[in-house]
Specification:
alpha+beta, 3 strands, 62% helix
Length: 104
């Protein structure tokens, strides 16, 4: 079984601020104001990162009056976790079977 990981999604999540945002949104739905308070990032910088997360399908928005709330899409995180689980399973099987390519 060959498993690969969604590299585009990894690039999106590799940024420290975006990973912090995802971690915060895993705990609760937050608006930009909350995220600015929690991260200490400038509002414009945070908005740019939220746009990247939204376009990648990692978060979804919910308008509430003049605010927009952000919610993590758990199925996206589950999908990438499943891809890593598949890699771990393949590595375990390779290790147990002592599979290695011979050198020329």
């Amino acid at each position: 079984m060959m498993t690969s990981v969604d590299t585009d999604l990894l690039r999106v999540l590799a940024d420290p601020l975006r990973l912090q945002i995802v971690t915060l949104l895993a705990r609760e739905t937050l608006c930009t104001t909350h995220l600015v308070e929690e991260t200490g990032a400038k509002q414009t910088n945070l908005s740019n990162h939220l746009k990247v997360l939204r376009e990648a399908g990692v978060v979804e928005t919910e308008p509430c009056g003049r605010f927009i709330y952000y919610r993590l899409r758990p199925e996206v995180i589950e999908a990438i976790a499943g891809q890593f689980a598949g890699l771990a399973q393949a590595a375990r099987a390779t290790s147990e079977a002592n599979i290695k390519r011979s050198c020329p």
